[in-house]
Amino acid sequence: MEEKNVLLYMHAGSGNHGCEAIVNSTCAMLRGHQTLISYRRQEDATYSLAQTCEILQEKKITKSLWVHAFYLLKKILTRNPMCYIKYRFGEVLQDHKYDLVISVGGDNYCYPEQIQDLILLNQAFREKHMRTVLWGASIEPMLLTRPELVADMNLYEAIFAREQQTYEALRKAGIPEEKLYCYPDPAFTLQARETSLPVGVEGNNCIGINISPMVIGKEQKKGIVLENYRYLIQQLLSHTHMKILLIPHVVWENNDDRKALRELYECFQENDRLILIEDQDCMTLKGIISQMRFMVAARTHASIAAYSTCVPTLVTGYSVKARGIAEELFGTQGHYVLPVQEMQDKEDLWRECQWLMAHEAEIREQLQEVMPGYIAKAREAGDILDKMVKK
């Protein structure tokens, strides 16, 4: 039988370990030859993806002033932004025929600034008669009031929403139900790599803490997010015996969790109970997170690493993805998600963390009960996707 070819696209690079986790786990579900076109190919090669798929480099206009100027002028004169897309993705649009083309960005449609590129790329692949799938997606419901976005959704052969809120929003927007699936994020199936914690750290009495520039950027009261995290750490040091591991999950220069984590670390650096974890690949980070007693996470995939290994988790969220996943697992977002837009007092995060700790046993029991089926359901989505490849 002829080997099937799958293309994965809209991958920004493995320095975002959530992106890495989606591609890694998706490739593990599929048979045939998988090719990834990446914005940061060299970065991907330093983490886990070099062993999972062929990686191509998306062309970057910004690497050459003259190329940038040419395509910018062409875009203006022709009033056609598609020329920019065809330059960036020309290798996979012109030279290859793929049996299925999968958009793996997860929450890309949550960000209005990315939507035009998503629409144009979907259109470009469809013009080449390639079937497209939107995979493991979260979409803010309010964005689906835009006619051009609804038209874009209808071009996909299938859409896999990763939580019910997105699924219902798509259905209400008029997307045919035969195109729609609701399955957990593929990263729930990611293998955790067995790894040792820092010397002197016992995982059964640690709390992992993750913060991101994204949540800081969504705060409504200036400085409130860092103030909440500082107060949380102060209270944990004063009222518990737990070690506190500061865990980054995105390390891009312009979007680096380590900057805020270092700022927190420097506030308490004389206390040896606070430990700053170095950057690792997604499987190693999941191995570390799996050994935590509790997790406070800003990044969605840091929370997925925790949930999927049955670690009681509080998410400092800002979008539908955090709310939707919590409701899938617990039937409510209350106490499990603290929207950063609602932070007004420095004690807000500590208050919710106290609730988490007080309900540790029942939360862990709930996760242990639902997680095997939830992970199995995520694998089922992979089986459906694999059948689409062979169609």
Name a few traits of the molecule.
Rossmann fold, alpha/beta, 16 helices, 5-stranded parallel β-sheet, 391 residues
Protein architecture, described:
This protein is about 45% helix and about 15% strand. It is an alpha/beta fold. The protein folds into 2 domains: about 5-180, Rossmann fold (3-Layer(aba) Sandwich); about 205-370, 3-Layer(aba) Sandwich (Rossmann fold). Strand 1 (about 5-10), helix 1 and strand 2 (about 35-40) form a beta-alpha-beta unit. Helix 3 (about 65-80) packs antiparallel against helix 4 (about 80-90) and helix 10 packs across helix 15. The longest helix is centred in the C-terminal third of the chain and has 31 residues, at about 360-390. The protein is globular, with a radius of gyration of 21 Å. The model has no long low-confidence stretch (mean pLDDT about 90).
CATH architecture designation of the largest domain: 3-Layer(aba) Sandwich
Mean pLDDT: 92
Stretches with pLDDT under 50, minimum 5 residues: none
- CATH fold node name of the largest domain: Rossmann fold
Task: Map the helices and strands.
Layout: E1 5-11, H1 17-29, E2 33-38, H2 41-46, E3 54-57, H3 65-78, H4 82-88, H5 90-94, E4 100-103, H6 115-127, E5 132-137, H7 147-155, E6 158-161, H8 164-172, E7 180-182, E8 206-209, H9 213-217, H10 224-239, E9 243-246, E10 251-252, E11 255-256, H11 257-267, E12 274-276, H12 282-289, E13 294-297, H13 300-307, E14 313-315, H14 320-330, H15 348-358, H16 360-390
Parallel strand pairs: 1-2, 1-4, 2-3, 4-5, 5-6, 6-7, 8-9, 8-13, 9-12, 13-14
Antiparallel strand pairs: 10-11
Helix pairs in contact: 3-4, 6-7, 10-15
